[in-house]
Structure formats: structure tokens, C-alpha cells
């Protein structure tokens, strides 16, 4: 009886139906594993909890109850939804389980990790570079936008100092707006607008930015804008090169350069060099751009562009670029420190630092040579003696405290926080006193060092330090070995013994002392064969140099066809020999001029 009663109850509890036939009071149309598809008695406790169900009800109360039960049943398995319009069932996959091995959250990551992650994510997203309209109105609009972005960045950095994600997007926008001003280089007539609307002032402020990448972008833009080659190139100016007045181009270039220099730009460039790591690609490019910018300003100053721009705008005479470098910065000390740095095995470019350290050292030597050859330094209008330069300092250094002065051997005060530039140059030359440079970069570096040392000897105080450091003896050693360094050694001896052309009747004690030291060191024995033009005594140029290459010999033959490269090499060889002869004659003349007839020397 129990079995028949259960069967009867079961038949009342379920009415089979393949399709929806309308609402039935007390029943719910659904599908279950026990009965199948049809009308099920509502609130029937025999239905399995874990069955996959699809429900619809005839009234609002039944729909709410059946829906909640279906959601609860589907948390562990699949869920299903009934589509009344199509009379079909759609399976809804269950939610993926929570993974406990998730990436670290922002609260567990350091600031550097957040910054690196944000940069990596943003670098994968394509974004269009901002363009600036090359009109006065466009320059003014770009300047206002740049200033707003800069102030917004300063605010975000102050509010979210430990959360780089908060200001990363703003910083990328700031970088894009900085780079957009590169386009102004095609129209030099707009340089005055850059100064008038305050773009130069914003650039100077951003050179102090906490993110060195922002300062690097500023340096890169300034290198493009202040390129001296723009004065001779027509570019895309509104006027054609034939219509554009060269003096107008120079005046506009001078306006921008003077605004940068007078605003303290040289000091900011020098300070930024202290926070660049040459092992990092971006920082190595920043060092290269900083040196290129200084070199461009030196070229513009030497050609009179800066001076003429001040005169045309009725501005008072200001310091030259070299005077600003020597009086306001410790940039010279950085150059000597970079030349002295031993790159070791890192002399070639790598994937991390595509710019070779040897190339950066070469560039530093070129800039140093250009500074020391400037008339302001040689005339002692600015700059200290090279043997007692202050150590390099940067505004980004943590410790700027100076060491106390110590007593030297002669009883005078000698500061420990100084650099001996004469010694640095002599050590760089000493590395090649017995052997020739092997590659072209080394050869050019050695030539720059000789040029810098020779130019510094136009100052009498440097001659005294040069003699004291046994520089004359080192030059004679290079001559004895007849290596490539012998040619540069003759030039240095010429400057060390001859003296400045401006000093015709003054006190020449330093040069007299230098000549006597030359004679005591056996210089006459080496000088006379050169003075007599004996080929066996002439130092030979290195094979990596143009004058010492095999092409130099081919260019001397008159018969047959000779390439332009061979002719150029032959001309370099001839120039080498002429300089050796001329320097030998000048040294002989200096000895007869400075050493008295009654002298024991």
C-alpha cells in the first residue's frame, strides 16, 4: 500500500508536458532529473537540490521563490535559463573559482615596482604624439598647456608621493607636450615666441624635475632647437632660404640661446649629469645630449651669435658661455672626472647601453678642448688653474658638505676637495707613450687631450703646474719612442715653452723655468734631429689615423687613378709632417728667446 500511495503521490506531484501549455495553479514548469520536463507540484520536498533547473512562474511570488532556489542550486554546478520565446534551454557555465595565487596588489608592491609595471603597461598601448601648431597662437597655446600639465604633475606628485600610478599618465602627457616643441626647429622665426610666452622658463623648471626622464626630454628638445646647422639649412621656414635673412636667423637663434644661458641653464645641465647612469640606455642618451647641447652653445658663442643677439636687442653685455661654465658650475671637473674614468671592459656598446662609454669619453674630451681654447679662459678672465679645480657637485647629490682644508707640504692650505686637471691629462697621455692607439676613437681622444693641454698652457699658472708635474719629461718620452703621441707632444712643448703671444715684455718666469727644464731633461738631443728634418727621428702617425693609413702612401703616387679617400689621407700625412717641422722651429726659437746668453743652460 505504501508503494501504491507513493506512486499516486508521485503522479499528482508531476504532470509530464514536452512544451509549455500555460500556467497551472499550484504547479511550476521546469526540468528535473527525477521526473523530466513538465509541471511540478510547487513546494514539493522530494525534488533534489543539486538538479539543474529552469523555472518560470504564473505569478510574481512563485517566480521569486523558484528563481532563488535555482540560483542556490547552480552555485556548485551549472545553471540554466529558459527562453520562453524559443522554447529552448541555454546552459550558463559556472563562475571560475577564485585563485589565491594572484599578482601582488598595489598595497604589497613597492613604488619602483608600481612605476615599472605602469610604464610597461602603458608602453604596450599605442598613443599618438601631440602636435603643435607652428604659429604664434599655436606656440602660446602649447605653452599654456605645458604649464598646466606641469602644475598638475607637481600637485599629483605631492599628493601621491608613494603611488606612482596616480601620476604616471600625467607624466607621459607632460613628456609628449615637451617633445612636441621639437617641431619648432623647422621655423626659427618662432624662437622669439618661445622666449616671450615663457617656454624657456618652463624648460628650466622641468630640468629640476624628480624624474630624470623628463630632464632628458628637455635636453633632447634643446639640442634640436639650438643646432648650429639650422643657421645654414633652409628647413621648412615660411620663407625660403634665399628670402630668409641670415642675420635674422642668427638673431632668433641667439634670443633662445641667451634666454637659456642667462636663466641658469648651464648650471642645471651640469647638475643633471650627476644623476645620469651611463649603464642605462636613457641616461646614456641624456649624457650625450647634455654634451651636445654644451657643444652647440660653445659654437654659437664662438661665432658671435649670442653677442650679436644681445646687441640687436639693446641688452647689456653678459657672460660668455665659457664664463658661465667656469664661474657658475663645476662642469669642468665633471669633464676631467669622465676622462679619468676607467671604462675597462665596458668600452663597447651593449644592449642595455647602446652608446659606448668610449664614445662618451671622446665627446667629453672634445667639449673640454673647446672650453680651454676659448679666449675667455686663455686670457684668465674666468676659470681656476687646472691643478686646483673644485670637485664636481650636483644639486641632486645627497651630501654636499665640503671637507676641511688640509695643509700642503709647503705650509699653504690645500683643499682636499679639488681635482688636478693637469695630472688627469698627463695620465691620459701616458697610456700611449709607448704604443699607438688601436682604434679611431682612441686616436681622436688622444688628439683632443693634446689640444686641451696645449690650450691650457696659454695661461702662465698652468705652465707652472705642468712643469711641476713633470709634463716636459713625459712629452720627451713620447718623442723618444717615435709613436703617434710624439706629434702631439711637440705641440704641447711648443705652447709650454713659447708662451702667449700677448705676453711680449711681461714677466716670463714660468716660461724661462720651462725652457731650462727642457734643456736639463735632454730635450736638445731630441730636438735637433727634428729641426734638421731627419726622417728617422720624425714620430709616425698611428695606422688608425688618416695620415698613418696605407691610403696615405697610395695618394702620393702620381701615376694611375687615385681615389678621393687616398688623396685625403695623403694630405693628412703631409699636414702631420708640416706640423712636426713647424713645432720644432717654434721650440728652437722659444729656447733662444727665453734663455739668456749668460745662462748656464
Care to describe what's here?
This protein is mainly alpha-helical and 601 residues long. Helices cover 53% and strands 5% of the residues. The chain has 25 helices and nine strands. It has helices at residues 2-13, 60-73, 111-123, 136-159, 165-179, 191-196, 199-206, 212-225, 246-262, 265-272, 281-302, 305-312, 321-328, 331-340, 357-372, 375-378, 421-430, 440-456, 460-468, 471-481, 485-498, 509-520, 523-531, 550-554, 564-594, and strands at 14-16, 27-32, 36-41, 79-83, 88-92, 389-390, 406-407, 413-414, 418-419. The chain has a three-stranded antiparallel beta sheet. Strands 4-5 form a two-stranded antiparallel ribbon. Strand 7 and strand 8 (413-414) form a beta hairpin. The radius of gyration is 40 Å and the shape is elongated. 36% of the residues are buried.
List the helices and strands and how they pair.
Layout: H1 2-13, E1 14-16, E2 27-32, E3 36-41, H2 60-73, E4 79-83, E5 88-92, H3 111-123, H4 136-159, H5 165-179, H6 191-196, H7 199-206, H8 212-225, H9 246-262, H10 265-272, H11 281-302, H12 305-312, H13 321-328, H14 331-340, H15 357-372, H16 375-378, E6 389-390, E7 406-407, E8 413-414, E9 418-419, H17 421-430, H18 440-456, H19 460-468, H20 471-481, H21 485-498, H22 509-520, H23 523-531, H24 550-554, H25 564-594
Helix pairs in contact: 4-5, 5-8, 8-11, 9-12, 11-15, 14-15, 14-17, 15-18, 17-18, 18-21, 19-22, 20-21, 21-25, 23-25
Amino acid at each position: 500500500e505504501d508503494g501504491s500511495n507513493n506512486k499516486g503521490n508521485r503522479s499528482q506531484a508531476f504532470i509530464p508536458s514536452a512544451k509549455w501549455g500555460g500556467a497551472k495553479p499550484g504547479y511550476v514548469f521546469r526540468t528535473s532529473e527525477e521526473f523530466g520536463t513538465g509541471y511540478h507540484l510547487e513546494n514539493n520536498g522530494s525534488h533534489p537540490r543539486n538538479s539543474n533547473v529552469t523555472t518560470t512562474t504564473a505569478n510574481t511570488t512563485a517566480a521569486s521563490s523558484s528563481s532563488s532556489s535555482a540560483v542556490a542550486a547552480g552555485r556548485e554546478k551549472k545553471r540554466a535559463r529558459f527562453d520562453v520565446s524559443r522554447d529552448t534551454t541555454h546552459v550558463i557555465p559556472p563562475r571560475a573559482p577564485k585563485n589565491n595565487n594572484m599578482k601582488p596588489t598595489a598595497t604589497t608592491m613597492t613604488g619602483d615596482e608600481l612605476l615599472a609595471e605602469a610604464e610597461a603597461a602603458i608602453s604596450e598601448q599605442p598613443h599618438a604624439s601631440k602636435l603643435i601648431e607652428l604659429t604664434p597662437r599655436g606656440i602660446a597655446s602649447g605653452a599654456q598647456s605645458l604649464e598646466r600639465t606641469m602644475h598638475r604633475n607637481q600637485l599629483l606628485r605631492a599628493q601621491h608621493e608613494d603611488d606612482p600610478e596616480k601620476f604616471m599618465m600625467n607624466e607621459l602627457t607632460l613628456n609628449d607636450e615637451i617633445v612636441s616643441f621639437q617641431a619648432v626647429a623647422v621655423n626659427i622665426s618662432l624662437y622669439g615666441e618661445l622666449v616671450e610666452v615663457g617656454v624657456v622658463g618652463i624648460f628650466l623648471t622641468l630640468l629640476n624635475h624628480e624624474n630624470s626622464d623628463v630632464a632628458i626630454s628637455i635636453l633632447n628638445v634643446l639640442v634640436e632647437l639650438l643646432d648650429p646647422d639650422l643657421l645654414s639649412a633652409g628647413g621648412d621656414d615660411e620663407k625660403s632660404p634665399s628670402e630668409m635673412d641670415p642675420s635674422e636667423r642668427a638673431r632668433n637663434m641667439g634670443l633662445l640661446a641667451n634666454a637659456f644661458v642667462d636663466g641658469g641653464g648651464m648650471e642645471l645641465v651640469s647638475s643633471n649629469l650627476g644623476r645620469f647612469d651611463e649603464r642605462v640606455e636613457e641616461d646614456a642618451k641624456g649624457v650625450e645630449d647634455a654634451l651636445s647641447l654644451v657643444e652647440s652653445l660653445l659654437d654659437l658663442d664662438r661665432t658671435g651669435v649670442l653677442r650679436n643677439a644681445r646687441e640687436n636687442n639693446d641688452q647689456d653685455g653678459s657672460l660668455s658661455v665659457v664664463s658661465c661654465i667656469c664661474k657658475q658650475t663645476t662642469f669642468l671637473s665633471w669633464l676631467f672626472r669622465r676622462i679619468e674614468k676607467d671604462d675597462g671592459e665596458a668600452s663597447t656598446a651593449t644592449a642595455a647601453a647602446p652608446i659606448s662609454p668610449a664614445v662618451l669619453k671622446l665627446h667629453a674630451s672634445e667639449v673640454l678642448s673647446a672650453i680651454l681654447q676659448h679666449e675667455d679662459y686663455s686670457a684668465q678672465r674666468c676659470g681656476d688653474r687646472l691643478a686646483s679645480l673644485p670637485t664636481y657637485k650636483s644639486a641632486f647629490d645627497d651630501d654636499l658638505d665640503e671637507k676641511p682644508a688640509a695643509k700642503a707640504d709647503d705650509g699653504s692650505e690645500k683643499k682636499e676637495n679639488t681635482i688636478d686637471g693637469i695630472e688627469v691629462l698627463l695620465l691620459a697621455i701616458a697610456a700611449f707613450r709607448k704604443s699607438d692607439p688601436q682604434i679611431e676613437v682612441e686616436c681622436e681622444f688622444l688628439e683632443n687631450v693634446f689640444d686641451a693641454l696645449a690650450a691650457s698652457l696659454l695661461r702662465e699658472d698652468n705652465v707652472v703646474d705642468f712643469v711641476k708635474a713633470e709634463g716636459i719629461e713625459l712629452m720627451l718620452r713620447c718623442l723618444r719612442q717615435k709613436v703617434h703621441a710624439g706629434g702631439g707632444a711637440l705641440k704641447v712643448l711648443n705652447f709650454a715653452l713659447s708662451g702667449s703671444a700677448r705676453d711680449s715684455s711681461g714677466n716670463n718666469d714660468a716660461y724661462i723655468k720651462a725652457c731650462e727644464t727642457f734643456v736639463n731633461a735632454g730635450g736638445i738631443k731630441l730636438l735637433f734631429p727634428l729641426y734638421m728634418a731627419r726622417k728617422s727621428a720624425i714620430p709616425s702617425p698611428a695606422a688608425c689615423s688618416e695620415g698613418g693609413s696605407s691610403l696615405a702612401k697610395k695618394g702620393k703616387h702620381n701615376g694611375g687613378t687615385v681615389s678621393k679617400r687616398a688623396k685625403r689621407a695623403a694630405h693628412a700625412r703631409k699636414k702631420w709632417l708640416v706640423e712636426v717641422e713647424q713645432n720644432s722651429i717654434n721650440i728652437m726659437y722659444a729656447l733662444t728667446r727665453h734663455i739668456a746668453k749668460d745662462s748656464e743652460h
